[in-house]
Amino acid sequence: MKLLAINGSHRGDKGHTRHLLDLVCQGANEAGAECEIVSLAKYKINRCLSCGECHEAEHNLQCAYHDRDDVASIFAKIGQSDVVIYATPVYVFGMSGLLKTFLDRLYSTSDVNQMMLTHSGLLFHHIDHAVCSKPFVTLVCCDNLEDETPRNVLSYFRAFARFMDAPHMGELVRNGGKLAGYGLDPEKRKKFPRLEKVYAAYIQAGRELALEGRINQRTQRIANQEIIPVPFFKILKKFPPFKKVMLVRAKEMMA
Ligand SMILES: Cc1cc2nc3c(=O)[nH]c(=O)nc-3n(C[C@H](O)[C@H](O)[C@H](O)COP(=O)(O)O)c2cc1C
């Protein structure tokens, strides 16, 4: 079983996203899977120029950058893996520019003149199933506590799953990163006792991916829980009057 994680953080191996991916890989390795983390920040990823060259008959779905950057080699890694994790921090309500730039290059692998119907009944053009339809997990992290913050990224990958015929094997959503010192600060970790459970769930998610190819709902619930030590915080934060309490609490915790 081979798990490939695509890390879209511009901070690469030093970031929070990488820390979360390391936990998943720890679990996957323990369960016997092979794990590789590709931090896009370390690779040369050119942006699609929309030049259309890849869709001209003589270029046969080969991007103009084919042998001039690292995208083709990362696509090949996706092709050879069993499950992919698309991981990104939220950057101004969306995925990182790096991950989006990378994913835009999938366009060059599709014959846009050939139409098809996806398994979920959507009209779409031809895609390279070996790369686009790989079972995948979304991992998104952010600082803000509002559910609105990671929504666009989650929605993007839900659409991706349906258009690309790619089985969606789980969603890991971690908010409050800054508040909790990104889980790396031992003092902050004491203030957020739930973090230990959250990180244990990330390790468990890795185990489940290795053994079952998907993350169980229960594990996702634990991994995605609120870390603020206030009972029913997830429900309370939906009510505007509670926002003031939340603000005071957040300020205290960041101090
Ligand atoms: C350019 C940029 C934009 C960001 N925008 C948001 C945002 O809209 N909402 C949010 O909660 N966090 C935002 N963040 C914070 C990151 O999502 C957060 O710190 C994340 O954990 C960083 O992951 P990393 O350490 O792997 O890079 C932004 C960070 C950067 C650098």
Task: Give an account of the 3D structure.
The protein has 255 residues and is of the alpha/beta class. The protein has a single domain (2-254), classed as Flavodoxin domain (Rossmann fold). Helices cover 40% and strands 15% of the residues. The chain has 10 helices and 7 strands. It has helices at 16-30, 71-80, 97-104, 129-132, 151-163, 186-191, 194-212, 217-223, 233-236, 240-254; strands at 2-7, 34-39, 83-89, 115-117, 123-125, 136-141, 168-174. The strands form 2 sheets. The chain has a 5-stranded parallel beta sheet, sandwiched between helices. Strands 4-5 form a two-stranded antiparallel sheet. The protein is elongated and about 60 Å long. Flavin mononucleotide binds at residues 9, 11, 15-17, 89-93, 141-144, 149, 177-178.
